[in-house]
Amino acid sequence: MRKQGKRLFAKIGSSTPLDQQIYAYLTEKISQGAFSGGDRLVEADLQKIFKVSRNPIREAMRFLTSRGLLETVPGRGASMRRVSFKDIKEIYPILANLLGLAASMAADHIEEPTWTEGNTWETSPWLKAAEASRTSPDIISVRARSRAR
Q1: Is the pTM of this model over 0.70?
Q2: Structural domain total, the chain
Q3: Strand 70-73 vs strand 40-41: parallel, antiparallel, or unpaired?
Q4: Is residue 31 part of a domain?
């Protein structure tokens, strides 16, 4: 007699299909950095983890492929898509403009009571966070590589 393990998604009567639950779980893990570019996602391994048949796993992987997060090679399976320097060069200006727009929109909503006594632009936690992100090693390396080209 085979011992049944608990499913990762053991909600009985859930209105969300298993493939969508698996897709959401994998997407969350990807955004948390649990997988990196080139990591293989093997259906059999995922089947053991989620304790479901392969069909919902295949559907979830099709969703991930259609969103550009996975690359599927016939006969080799699926792996996490690698982000190239070209991809970064295309995405970075868009991200910079979006961050600028977000900052502009946030500035429109700042009211006087949000500033406390003795809080200046120099001591502002927002300014410190922005400065820290501007000088982060990832952005510096991207800038250095783009200048070298």
Answers
A1: no
A2: 2
A3: unpaired
A4: yes
